[in-house]
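hiii so my PI (J.) wants the whole complex modelled not just the main chain, which honestly fair. so below is everything: two entries, each one labled with what it is. i double checked the lines twice but i was tired so who knows lol
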Amino acid sequence: MLVPRSFQPLAREQATFMGVTVMGGVVNQFAQALVQMSHCKFLGHANYTIAKDTTGLFGGVFTVVTNTNAYGISPGLNKTSKYYSFFYGSTPISERIGVIFQYVATNSSSGNSPAITFRIKNTSGTVLSKAVKFSFPAHLQMFNDGDIDRPATATTGGTFYDPPSGTSGTDDPRPLYIPPANRGDMLLFEVEVEDCDLVSVSFFDLYQPEVTP
Amino acid sequence: MGNTFTSPPTVPDTGDIIAGRVIKTESMARMGDLSNYIHAHGSTSNCISQSFDVHTCVTKSTSFVDQCRWRIPIPSNNHTTIQFHVAARVTSTGTGTLKFTLTDANSVAQGNSSISITSTASIHAHATVSHTFTSSTTAAYVDVVMSAKVDASGYDVDVQTVAARFTALTSPLSAGNTAQGSDKITPFGASRLGANNALSSRAGVQWRTNIQTMRSRKRPLLIWSGIENPSSAFTGRGQGPKSLGVGDCQTMQVQSPLFVGGGSITLWIYVVDISGTRKFAFMNRLFSVTSNGWNEFTFTPSLENTTLESITFGFPLYKINPTAYVESDTLLDSVDRLAVISSAPRITALSVWSN
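here's the output for the full assembly
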C-alpha cells in the first residue's frame, strides 16, 4: 500500500456511530492514517550537533559562543583525525539509514586528504554491515583557507540498493544498512573523520513510499 | 484477549478497504495490530542527541556540577523508562560519574540514575543506564539535567556523546484505556477483530480517537544544550559553547521531516540573565522573551521551503535552525556581545518538537 506523507483529514466522528453504514472509504482513511504514523511520522531519526572548541583567533578565548568561533567558521576547524560515536535508536522497521552531514575541509595544513567513514556497530562494538566512505575529491569538497564562510553538505543519497555482503572494507556512499536481527536496537554509528571536521549530522530511516501488505 | 501486536508490524491492504469490497477480517485485525504497535513504538527513537568535540564537555570537579539540560517530550503515560547512552572517558586512571536527574512538567522529581566512566581509551567508550520514573505521570515532557564529577582531583571526565530514547512498550499492551497526557488511547484486543466478531461502532470510534491522539504525539526535532560549568585539570580545555551564538545559524542545520496537516512546532528556549525584552529568531519567526528559564513558543512553519535534500530522499525535509538576528536586543551571543563573559542575556538550551 502507499504510505502517505501528510496528515490527511479524518472522517467525521459521526461516520463511526451506531446505525451508520460502515463505508469502505472511512475504514480506508483510518488505515492510511495508521500507516502514515508507523511508516512515516515515527521513523527513526537522530540529529546531532557537535560542539566545537570556541577558542578564537589571535589566541583569544571567548568562553562563549558558538559551534564556530566568533568570526564564523575557522579554517578547517580541528583537522585532527578522530572518531565520533553517535547512538541511533532504530525502530523495528529501520532498514536503510540516510545520512546528511555538514563538514569543513580546507587545505590549511599538511594533511589534505579529507575522508569521512560511517560504520554501524551494535553497542558491544561488533560491526554490523559494510562501512561507507566519503573521500576527496569524489564525494567531498576542499577549499582554500578563508574561501568559505559556511560548512559544506554531503549525503548518502536515498537509493534502495541490495543489502551489502560482509562487514569488512568500505563502499562508496550509499545509505547505511541495518541487518534484520538488530532492528529496534540502540545502535552505534562510528564515524571516522580524517583531515577535515564534522559539524553536524542527521541520521534517519529512509522513507519508503510503498510497503507490501 | 491480549492487546498484542507484531513487530515489525504488518500493514492492511487498502485495496481491500474500498467501496464495493467485502470487509476482510484480516484488514481489521492488522489495523488493530498497527494501532497497538504505534502506541508502543511511536516516538521512541532518539529524544536526546548531542555530541561534543574532545575536551569541550569536561569537568575536573570532585562534586557534581550541572553540565547540560534538555527538555524532552514524553511519548505517553505508559512510557516511563528512558535509556541514556554516553560515549565518554576519563583522562587518566580514575572514575568519573555522569548523573541524569529528571523532573517532569508537573515539577515532580522523577529520580536520577548515574553512569560510571572508567575508560581511559583514546576513543570514548560506550556506557549506558536505564532509568524508570519514580512515579506515574501525565506530564507532557520531562526535564533532564546531566551533572558530572570525578572521584579525585587531577583529571577530567570528558563526554563526547549523549543520547537517550524512551523504551518502547512490549506486547501485549496493558489491558484497558490509557492516555497520552489527558488524551485517550485504547489498545485493541487481538481476537476482538478476528473472524465471527462484530465490527462494532466502538471499534471505529476507538480507531479515530487513537489516531487523533497519536498524531499529536510529539517528535523531538532538535534538542540542544550549551555546556554549563566546564572545568579542566589541563590548560586550554573546557572551551566549548555555553550559549547559542551567531555561528549556530550556519552550523545548526538539522534537517527533519514536517508533514502537511501536522500543525504547529513547539519551541522551548532556556534563557539566563534576562533584562528587559529580548528577541530570538527561529525558522524565520521572531520571538520576544522577558523571562529567565524555559520559555515556550508555538508557531506554524512554512512548508513551502523544503531543503534540496528532500528531492534526494523523497521526503519533505526542513532545516530546523535558529535564524540570524543580530540587532541590539538579540539573545544570540557573538564576539560583539560576549554574553557569557559579561553575564548578558543569552540562550543556554533549546528544544524543538513537532507533531
